[in-house]
Amino acid sequence: MADFQNFWLNVFCQVYIPFSRPFYIEPTNIVNVNDVIQRVSDHASAMNKRIHYYSRLTTPADKALAGFTTGICVIMLMGLLTLYCCYRVVKSRTMIYFIHHINDTDTILSTNNTNPVICPSAENGGHPDNGSMILFANDTGVQQFEKWWNKSRTVPFYLIGLLLPLLNFKSPSFFSKFNILGTGSVLYLIFLVTFKAIRLGFHLEFHWLIPTEFFVPEIRFQFPQLTGVLTLAFFIHNCIITLLKNNKNQANNAEKTEDHAQSLQQELDRERQWHQKAEGDVAALNRRIHLVEELDRTQRRLATALQKLEEAENAVDKSERGTKVIEKRLAADTRRKLVKLVILEGELEGTEERVEVSELKCGDLEEELKNATNNLKSLEAASEKYSEKEDKYEEVKLLSDKLKEAETHAKFAERTVAKLEETTDDLEEKLAQAKEENSGLTSDTGSDTK
Predict the structure, then answer these.
(1) Tens digit of pLDDT for each residue in 220-275?
(2) Are 449 and 325 a contacting pair, CB within 8 Å?
């Protein structure tokens, strides 16, 4: 299909000529001598191995689907068409102008479908016959085999268990070590076909339209299915010829490889320089990013500090307002307490004066009492002397009455003095408490002011 596509591109797309060159042709005529040639031989070789192996497997099934006679005719027609396409490709070299750095490669791999082919053989070398099998009701061997080996239910899971570990390999070079298995499989197919041909012989029967059990018909209307496999086969043949032509002179390949290695080394040096420069740029960007991050963190810390400062200023303002209110209240309380203290001091002074007056009265009463006592004593002496006189006796009674009155006055004065002393003590205690409250308010006012 690639050659067919290139043919139509050569016919209808002459404006853009580079598309007419297949990827396996070296672009020696459309680049400069000093330009590095992009080699795709390795990719083509790997792809050719896979497609060559798959095409060999699909050939018998395609013959069965296309028919024997129609298949041979299709092979001849596809060969002629491919020859014409190759002729057009070779002639297109004269139509391509000098263009730099043009390359078109196909990267999509595809295969045709395959169908199973059964080739039974007779035991004695004769024609194959049908066989029969007797299965008993109690026999479960075939059922167990079909249960554990089913191509649509169980076999895919077996393949998953086998292929899933292989898919985890990162390097594809591991699989290149198994290329010999493809060669071994091809050799096995050649040996099997040769062995069957020797054992069974060549059998050819002409059945033009009706298929039989063991032979394909000569003509089938599904013969276009063979064109895809034939296109792939001729494409592989062309690729193999190109590879063999490129590997004809190993010395030229070595020189090209050395030139390619030098160019790759130069590209590697440029990549290293660019990588070092990029690392320097990345380091500078990292430093700049680090500085920007530090600036962002500093700005966030500054914003946080300013917010805390505003909160502290608001708290200080509230505290100052509260302090002023408290000072006003304390000043008012202090004034009220000072007024009360002055009143209490005045009352205390009046009480002290009354106490002094009472003490003076008590002193006078005591002196009178002493005088009365002395008079009583003198009267007693006089009464003893003048006991006979009744007049003196009446005076003695009078003196004794006065003495009783004086004692009564003295007792009343003592009680008054005691009450005054108690009042004085209470006033002194109230004064001390008022002084303590005044000192406490003064200390609180000082601490709030600080």
Answers:
(1) 677 777 777 777 777 777 776 776 666 666 566 666 677 777 888 888 888 888 88
(2) no
Do 230 and 114 belong together in one domain?
A: yes
- Whether the model clears a pTM of 0.70, i.e. scores above it, the answer is no
DSSP 3-state of 138: coil
Torsion sign over Cα 390, 391, 392, 397: positive
| Domain assignment present for 255 | no
Total structural domains within the chain? 2
Q: How many CB atoms lie within 10 A of CB 48?
A: 20
CB-CB neighbours of 229 under 10 Å: 25
Domain stops at, among 248, 270, 305 = 248
Structure tokens at 69: 């006679």
Please tell me the distance from the alpha carbon of residue 166 to that of residue 160, in angstroms, as a whole number. 10
The tokens of 196 are what?
Answer: 């069957």
Number of other residues whose CB lies within 10 A of the CB of residue 9: 19
Q: CATH number, domain at 393?
A: 1.10.287
Residue 444 inside a domain? The answer is yes
Q: How many residues are given for the chain?
A: 450
- Angle among Cα 56, 59, 61 to the nearest 5 degrees reads 130
Rounded to whole angstroms, the Cα distance separating 293 from 283 reads: 15
For residue 340, the enclosing domain spans: 324-449
Cβ neighbours, 10 Å, residue 49:
15
Q: Is the residue at 91 inside a domain? A: yes
Judged by average pLDDT, the poorest of 237-241, 316-320, 335-339, 419-423 is 237-241
